[in-house]
Amino acid sequence: MSIDKSLKKPAGMVRARNVLKRGERIAVLREQDRWEEGRSPLNLPKVRIQKVVAGKKKKKKKADDEDE
Length: 68
Hints:
By secondary structure, the protein is an all-alpha fold. The chain has two helices and no strands.
C-alpha cells in the first residue's frame, strides 16, 4: 500500500525557519566572532536570520523596442 503524496514529508526544508537550534546558533556566533570558548551554551544572545528573498523577474522587452 502506498502513501498519498500529500502525507509524504519533503526531502528537505523548503522554507526558512524562524528559530535555530542551539548548535546552529553557536555556529553562527562563531562565524561572527561573538563566541568565546568555555562559555555556557545557555542564555545565548539572539542571532539574526537572513531570509532569502527571490528576485523579481524582469519583464521581456518587445521586439519593437529592441530594434529602435
